[in-house]
Write a structure and sequence with these properties.
By secondary structure, this protein is α/β, with parallel strands linked by helices. It contains 13 helices and 23 strands. The chain binds thymidine-5'-diphosphate (TYD) and magnesium ion (MG). Magnesium ion binds near residues 105, 106, 129 and 175.
């Protein structure tokens, strides 16, 4: 009789399972990501575990019979987080919060726990990484904790399940999924099968008992949560907490959301007393702007439905090398090269004789095509050493023939500029034609790059 297989190969990136080892994962195309791990027991209990929700017989329903109760959403006490979640957290949902180690995931969730417990929710914070003492030290930094908020240091999910059914909390935090393990699976915590089976169990608890569960997941060097794209498929909502560790602001980005749109962001600032919401990111991004300097242009980018003003900086200097140096920080390097080629060809500037450094001030990363025109204006402003008016904002996409193309949500961008006291706006002519008249700001429509240069 053939021996039952006890191990299989799993892709660390996407969780693909294979009977034999391969150099490249056929599912996600990554190299060297297959690792050998014991397979999960395929018993009856496990197939039940795969099924989210309580094991009741379901029957088909008409759309009109399904009620959408708005009260199912609970506010987290942070508008920035609520917006990313689509207007508050849905009871019984499973939310993954991913991010680099040390970015502030535990801090954010602890503060959310504090807010939720203050509004009468029963919260259980389970940490597999820190001792109760460490948690207490952090809690002291972020301020008073009132209400029903309990802490537990535990890594065995089977034990956690027992405690949850005993305590019956409304909200549970699992910090982090990589430290959790199930006894019936023999591989180490953090391995693909452990992470998958652990999340399965949590899904079952969340759907079965209507408990909202937040899962913390660390991101590996490649930028994915370890073991994880598997995890992304299973949970309801995926949020990434990102930001430069040297800058104080943090961005919470929705990557997947079964209960709302995904392109929203929330902005926080890490302070001595924990995270603080940044309600007006534009003001934050533009603080400390130099006055009358050449090569600096204020642009307006959209993050979801939200306009953010940013400063695009360029430094263009004579090159002493055969191949000029170019760098792009915070934006796409190839896009900058392309825009310089457009300038060279369409406006006859000899860009190949100059080194160019482009930077989005404040450490924000932004790849929106609407920044094209601002990058071009910044480059030319630096090249000619002629500053762009400080009270002017610029946005528009630039095509290869040097034409300035329309961008989405032009009206919102202009409104944001008005809100922050800007006096003029350079925008695509097509957008201007569709826009309402506005006396608070001077709108300058341009249809190609050369027209835009005329403004300088
Ligand atoms: P943490 O929440 O532990 O990160 P993660 O759980 O994502 O690994 O955040 C740790 C960092 O945040 C640490 O470098 C210290 C900093 N921090 C503050 O600056 N102020 C604070 O009030 C707290 C609690 C942390
Ligand atoms: Mg942590």
């Amino acid at each position: 009789m053939a021996k039952a297989k006890t191990t299989a190969f799993f892709c660390k990136e996407c969780g693909y399972e294979s009977a034999k080892w391969m150099g490249q994962c056929p599912a996600c195309g990554e190299w060297n990501t297959l690792v050998e791990e014991p397979v999960a027991p395929k018993s009856g209990s496990s197939s039940q575990a795969r099924r989210p929700g309580p094991l009741i017989k379901s029957k088909p329903a008409l759309l009109s019979e399904i009620s959408i109760e708005e009260k199912d959403r609970v506010t987290t006490g942070y508008q920035e987080l609520d917006r990313v979640l689509g207007g508050g957290v849905v009871s019984g949902s499973l939310v993954l919060v991913g991010g680099d180690p040390g970015i502030g995931k535990s801090t954010l969730l602890l503060q959310v726990c504090r807010n939720l417990s203050a509004t009468g929710q029963k919260v259980l914070y389970i940490s597999g990484e820190e001792s109760l003492k460490q948690i207490k030290l952090r809690a002291n930094r972020v301020g008073q904790v009132t209400g029903d908020l309990k802490f537990l240091c535990e890594t065995s999910l089977d034990h956690i399940q027992e405690i949850i059914s005993g305590e019956k909390p409304d909200i549970v935090i699992i910090d982090s999924i990589q430290t959790m393990y199930r006894e019936e699976i023999s591989s180490a915590p953090g391995s693909v099968s452990q992470v998958r089976e652990s999340t399965n169990l949590l899904m079952q608890i969340a759907k079965g008992e209507g408990i909202t569960i937040f899962i913390v997941g660390h991101v590996t060097k490649e930028g994915v949560v370890a073991g994880p794209r598997v995890l992304e498929h299973m949970v309801d909502t995926v949020l990434y907490f990102e930001g430069d560790r040297h800058a104080s602001y943090r961005i919470l980005r929705g990557v997947k959301n079964r209960f709302g749109s995904t392109n929203e962001i929330g902005v926080f600032e890490m302070r001595e007393q924990g995270l603080v919401e940044v309600e007006n990111p534009s003001e934050f991004m533009l603080s400390g702007r130099p006055e009358g300097a050449s090569g600096a242009v204020v642009a307006c980018a959209m993050e979801g439905t939200r306009p953010i003003l940013l400063e695009v900086q360029a430094l263009v200097t004579q090159s002493n090398l055969g191949i000029p140096r170019r760098t792009a920080a915070g934006t796409d390097y190839n896009r900058v090269n392309l825009l310089m080629a457009v300038l060279e060809k369409r406006c006859h500037y000899e860009m190949s004789r100059y080194d160019a450094y482009v930077n989005i001030a404040g450490g924000m990363r932004m790849n929106e095509p609407a920044l094209d025109l601002s990058i071009i204006m910044a480059l030319v402003s630096s090249l000619k050493d002629r500053p762009v008016d400080e009270k002017t904002i610029v946005f528009g996409e630039v095509g290869l023939s040097g034409e300035v193309r329309a961008v989405s949500m032009a009206q919102q961008r202009v409104n944001e500029a008005v809100k922050l006291g800007f006096e003029a706006c350079v925008l695509p002519k097509i957008c201007l034609d569709k826009m309402k008249k506005n006396d608070q700001i001077r709108l300058i429509g341009v249809s190609n790059v050369r027209e835009a240069m005329g403004i300088l």
